[in-house]
Design a protein that fits this description.
379 residues, Rossmann fold, Beta-Lactamase, 3 domains, 5-stranded antiparallel sheet, 38% helix
C-alpha cells in the first residue's frame, strides 16, 4: 500500500534475540512500515530517547541492573511524550499499576506477542498520544488566552474558594500575587461583601450573572468600581460545582457617567436659574454666561465670550478680581466671596454680591471657574 504510514520504533532490550523477534513480528504487520532500531543498555536508551527521534519506544522491563519503568519515568520527566510500551516477562498487577503511574502507554507480555497484538498496541498508543497532544494544545491555548486577556478572570468553588485567577485580575485589584486574592475577594465572588448575597441569589436563580456592578477596596485603600459577569457550572447532581467569572474595571466609565449626569443637571440649573452665572477659563476670560446674566447686564453672549471678566468690572475692582482668579487657580482657596461693581452693556454701574468657585476635572486638576451673582442692583 502506497499510503501506509512509516513508524519509527526504538527497541531497548538487552536480549540480542529480542531485536530479531521484534523485526519478524513487525514484518508481518501489513498496515504500516516500521523502521526498527535497537539499543541494549539503559544508558544508550536514555541518550537516544533524549533526542526524541522515534514515534514509539519498546522498553524491556529489566535492563540489567536498571528498570525499564525508571527509564520511562526519566524520559517523561525530560519531556518525551511519545508512546512507550513496556515489555515484561510476566504480567503482574503491581507491574501494571507501577508502569501506568510512570507514564507507560501500554505493556506487552513477552512470549504472547504476535503481529496482531503488536499492531493494536502501537496503534492504540499512537492514537492516545495524538489525542493527548491535541488536549494539551487546547489547554495551552486556553491557558495562554486566560493569562493574557486584559480583563480579570477567575474560577472559584461554589463556596468561594479560589481555584484560579489570571494576572489581569491580580493587577486590577492591586495585589502582589494570586494567593492573596483568596481571603480578600474570592469568598465574596469579587463583589463587595454587602452585595454577596444578592449576587449569589441571582446566580442561583438564573445560572448566570451579567453587568453586576460593585465597589472593591484595594490594599492601598483605593476604591475600584467593577462590573462582574459569572456563570455557575453544575454537576450531574444539579448542584453548583464551580463558578467562573470575569471582572472589569469600570471606574472611569462610572465616573464619566456620573460626570455626564452632573453636567446635565448643571446645564439645567445654568439655563433655567434666576441667578446670574458666568463660567471663566483659568485665565479669567468668559467661556459662557447664562440667560439670567445676559438679561441683568444687557450683553449678548457673542460680545463677551473670550473677554476678560475684569474688563466687565469697574476700573477700581479689576485688580482685585484678577487677583482672586489667580488665587483660586493656585489653590490658595477654593471659594471667594465679595461685592463688585460691574459695567452693564449700556455703561451703567451695577453692584453685585458674587461667589466665585474653582471647579476641578475628574483628575483633580483645575478646569474652570464659576461665578454666581447673588444680588444685582443699580449703583
Amino acid at each position: 500500500m502506497a499510503d501506509k504510514p512509516r513508524i519509527r520504533v526504538l527497541l531497548i532490550d538487552d536480549d540480542p534475540a529480542a531485536f530479531v523477534l521484534t523485526r519478524a513480528i513487525m514484518d508481518h504487520i501489513p498496515s504500516a512500515d516500521f523502521d526498527l532500531e535497537h539499543v541494549s543498555t539503559a544508558g544508550e536508551g536514555t541518550e537516544v530517547m533524549g533526542r526524541r527521534e522515534h514515534d514509539v519506544y519498546l522498553v524491556d522491563y529489566l535492563l540489567g541492573d536498571h528498570s525499564g519503568i525508571e527509564l520511562v519515568r526519566e524520559a517523561r520527566a525530560a519531556g518525551n511524550r511519545a508512546p512507550m510500551i513496556l515489555l515484561t516477562g510476566k504480567g503482574k498487577y503491581e507491574v501494571d499499576v507501577e508502569a501506568m503511574t510512570a507514564g507507560v502507554s501500554d505493556y506487552l507480555e513477552k512470549g504472547k506477542v504476535g503481529p496482531e497484538v503488536m499492531e493494536r498496541s502501537i496503534r492504540y498508543s499512537l492514537e492516545r498520544a495524538r489525542s493527548e497532544a491535541q488536549l494539551r494544545d487546547s489547554e495551552e491555548r486556553h491557558r495562554s488566552m486566560f493569562d493574557h486577556l486584559p480583563i480579570g478572570l477567575y474560577r472559584t468553588s461554589a463556596e468561594g474558594e479560589l481555584r484560579d485567577a489570571n494576572p489581569a485580575l491580580v493587577q486590577l485589584l492591586g495585589h502582589p500575587d494570586r494567593d492573596t486574592l483568596e481571603s480578600e475577594y474570592a469568598r465574596n465572588f469579587f463583589v463587595n461583601p454587602s452585595h454577596r448575597q444578592a449576587f449569589l441569589d441571582r446566580l442561583d436563580q438564573f445560572g448566570t450573572v451579567r453587568g453586576f456592578e460593585s465597589e472593591l477596596t484595594r490594599p492601598d485603600g483605593g476604591v475600584v468600581r467593577v462590573r462582574t459577569a459569572a456563570r455557575s457550572h453544575r454537576g450531574t447532581d444539579g448542584l453548583s460545582a464551580y463558578v467562573e467569572g470575569a471582572v472589569e474595571d469600570v471606574s472611569e466609565e462610572v465616573e464619566a457617567r456620573d460626570l455626564h449626569g452632573r453636567a446635565a443637571r448643571f446645564d439645567w440649573v445654568f439655563e433655567g436659574s434666576g441667578l446670574a452665572i458666568v463660567i471663566l477659563d483659568l485665565q479669567g476670560a468668559v467661556r459662557n454666561a447664562n440667560p439670567a446674566f445676559l438679561r441683568s447686564f444687557g450683553y449678548r453672549l457673542q460680545a463677551i465670550r473670550g473677554r476678560a471678566m475684569a474688563a466687565l468690572a469697574d476700573a477700581a475692582d479689576r485688580d482685585a478680581l484678577n487677583r482672586e482668579v489667580r488665587m483660586l487657580v493656585s489653590g490658595a482657596h477654593e471659594v471667594s466671596e465679595m461685592e463688585r461693581r460691574l459695567v452693564a452693556e449700556d455703561g451703567a454701574l451695577l453692584w453685585a454680591k458674587t461667589r466665585m468657585g474653582l471647579v476641578r476635572n475628574a483628575k483633580g486638576t483645575p478646569d474652570h471657574i464659576v461665578i454666581l451673582f447673588e444680588d444685582v442692583a443699580e449703583g
